[in-house]
Structure formats: C-alpha cells, structure tokens
Amino acid sequence: MTALKHEEPDRVPFNLRPGQLHVERLRAETGSADFAEHFHHDLRYVTLDLPAPPEEVSPQEWTPVPSDGEVARAAEQTAALQAQGVAVCSSYVCGVYEQAKEWIGDEGTMIGPYEDPAGLAEMLDRITDWKMALYGAYVRAGVDLVWIGDDLGAQRSLVMSPRQYREWYRPRHARIVSHLRRLRPEIRIVFHCCGHATPLIRDLIEVDIDVLEAVQPEAMDLSQLKREFGRDLTFWGGIGTQGLMQGSPERIRDTIRETLRLMAPGGGYLAAPCHTLTEDVPWENVLAFHQALEDHGAYPNPAA
User: Tell me, what DSSP letter sits at residue 132?
Assistant: First the structure.
C-alpha cells in the first residue's frame, strides 16, 4: 500500500500467478498448495462466486451478481488476509469490451459501431451496469484493490483507434470508476490491459485509474512508462512471460535487476510476471524469480 502511494517501502512488493503444474510441484516439494503463502507474496486474491445460469437462459440474458451472503463470506476472508499484513485484490472480472466480444464475437464487436451503433450502445450500457454491480460487490467486501480492465492492446498497436476507444469505451470505464469511488473513495482501481497500451495511458489516468497491469515489456517501453507516467500511475507486472520466464535462471535474475532499476525508484511499482505462468515455465525459473526479488528488491537501492 505504501508503494501504491508512490512512496518507497522497505522493499519492492511482488506476487506471481502460478500455473496448475507449478502448484502441483510446490505441493510435491513442500506439502503446501498455498503458493502465495509459501513465497510470501504481498498481494492475495479473493473470489466472489456467482450462481450458475439456468439451462434455458442465453448468455446475453444472464448477468448474475453475488448474493449478500457471498459478499459477507468474501468480507470475512478479506479481513483475515488483511490481518496478516497483506493487501487484498479482487479476482479479475473482464470488462465492457471483453464481455461484448464474449457475447457477440470479435467481428460483431468491431463492426458494431458502423453497422448497428444504437444496438451496440444499448448492449455496452447493459454490460457497464452489470460490471458496476460486480466490481462494486468486491468493494463492499472490503478489498484494497479492485481489478477491472479490457484487453485493448495487440503486440505492437491498439486493437482499435484511440478515437474509437474514447467514443465507445472510455465513457463507460469512467462510469465504472466513478461508481466505485462513490462506494469507497479510497479504493485502489487496477486496470488490466494486455499488449501495447501506451497510447491510452493518459486516458486511463484521466479516468482515475490507479494501477496499470500487465505492463508487458515485449509490447511497451518500461523506461518510457516510468518517465512519462510514473508520477500518476502505479505499474504492476513488467516481468516478461513471452520468453523471459522460459529462459535461463541467470537471465531472469539479470532482467529483474534491470527492471527494478527502471521501475522501482519512488515507489509506484509492484513486481510480477505479466500473466499467469504457462506450463512451459520451468520450476527453477519460478524459484529464480522469487530469489531475485529477495536478493535485489530492497530499498533504498533496488537492483543493487
């Protein structure tokens, strides 16, 4: 939480989302399946379960919200984790654009502004209302960070023009953020976006996003991000998973040191691989990630 205030804590906070094979390996090695607890991650997740849809209901008609009892259960879990001295984040729930693609497909979502703008607008507003309720349930459960987002970036560009984002999605993201701030002004809002998101970062800051995740170094320039936006936005991620985490432990350690050198000064950085680890990441590299943060993550001189 200190790092999120753009201040320097005792060390760079970190976490990692393991794949199932890594969880199984940890259990075989230690007898524990609690990855975050074993490796002392600074960020933990809670999940709100949703009721299953009736068979006769189409996906576009099913917009479930968690029950009050489920929110109360998550609130108890959240409070117990916070009592251990860790920050608590909601599990990821996809956003407006991603949900539209789930309902009507990539093609329908992308050509909707041209072929059926009124119909697309009505659907996006309905999705926005639903996401406000879902994200808001996590805020009511007391999490420190609520994790929203939309995958708006490809490897080297956006999936739509900035103008189209500003017309169709920024106003709806702004509605969601404003709603969450009304529920709890101090809530920290994380925006997930894979790929090249640099052209939209100023928009996200203006919408009042606190944290950008996944921050893929394969798709964005980390030094540019820190230099241009590091005073206004916290970055969560920055450790590549498209090749680095499949490489050698030595390369992982060296790259993490360089990433810390760029991103850690002044706070505003949570170190993590950009995505959930895939099965081709060797166990030795999982250990190397954690060892590098232990060896080189201390302030006042991260990467030393």
Answer: H
Characterise 138 by phi-psi region: left (phi > 0), alpha (psi -120 to 50), beta (else): alpha
Q: Which residues contact 9 (CB under 8 A, 6 or more apart)?
A: 2, 3, 267, 299
Per-residue pLDDT of 55-109, as tens digits, reads: 888 889 999 999 999 999 999 999 999 999 999 999 999 999 999 999 999 999 9
Burial of 182 (0-12, 13-18, 19+ CB in 10 A): exposed
Residue 87 CB: number of other CB atoms within 10 A?
A: 20
C-alpha dihedral sign at 258, 260, 265, 269: positive
The enclosing H or E element of 126 equals: helix 117-140
Map out the domains of the chain as residue ranges: 1-35+215-223+233-299, 42-51+64-205
Phi, psi of 87 (to 5 degrees): -85, 150
- Nearest partner of 195 among 168, 160, 232, judged by Cα: 160
Specify the pLDDT at position 59. 86
Residue 77 CB-half CA count within 13 A: 17
Q: Sort strands 145-149 and 269-273 into parallel, antiparallel or unpaired.
A: unpaired
Report angle CA 32, 34, 40 to the nearest 5 degrees: 110
The helix or strand, by DSSP H or E, that contains position 178, with its residue range, turns out to be helix 170-183
Across the strands, what pairs with 212?
Answer: 191, 235
In a 13 Å sphere around the CA of 286, the CA atoms on its Cβ side amount to 24
Q: What is the 3-state secondary structure (H, E, C) of 243-260?
A: CHHHCCHHHHHHHHHHHH
The verdict on domain 42-51+64-205 having CATH code 3.40.50.720 is: no
Mean pLDDT score, 173-202: 98
DSSP 8-class letter at 202: H
Residue by residue, DSSP assigns 74-112 as HHHHHHHHHTTT-EEEEPP---HHHHHHHHHHHHHHHHH
The residues that bridge with 192 in the sheet, in sequence order, are 149, 213
pLDDT recorded at residue 303: 87
